[in-house]
Amino acid sequence: MKKFIFILICFPFGLVAQLKDLTFEEIELLRSNESRPIAVFLYSDWCKYCHYMKTTTLRDEEVIRLLNEKYYFSFLNVEDDRDIHFNGFYSDYIPTGREAEVYQLNKVLTSISKNYPYPTFLIFDSSMKIIFQYEGFIDHRTLAYSLKHLTKPQKGENTVE
Hints:
Elements: H1 2-10, H2 24-31, E1 38-43, H3 48-55, H4 61-70, E2 72-77, E3 84-86, E4 89-91, E5 93-94, E6 102-103, H5 104-109, E7 120-124, E8 130-135, H6 140-150
Parallel strand pairs: 1-2
Antiparallel strand pairs: 1-7, 3-4, 5-6, 7-8
């Protein structure tokens, strides 16, 4: 009995919200049934701010809830060498030198600034236009605020909700 109470105290309800990480191929299939904005977190294994953001901001319950309910979300490790097929676009991994490889898709995704800083958090509308691009660490409050307001209809627009 003591073990059971200890477990309940340490792990209340035994459940922690988890962020749904979809592949680009899965997002493409889901978009055919329900149109939602797409959120992408670009990161690198060597980036300490990326790691910190993954362990803080992207584990916040409100951020997880918003991303799971209102967006299609994907982590994209820019060092992963798998090919990506998405929205009629094929992206392969481009070795550009020692430890300097990038995805073709990475170049397209970060087209607003033409830089490749990590971490980068991107949001696309249903027509695949970048509507939000944040380069660098973003805390959970700022991201949650942005996620809420990006799904609210602007004057004369339909809601994404």
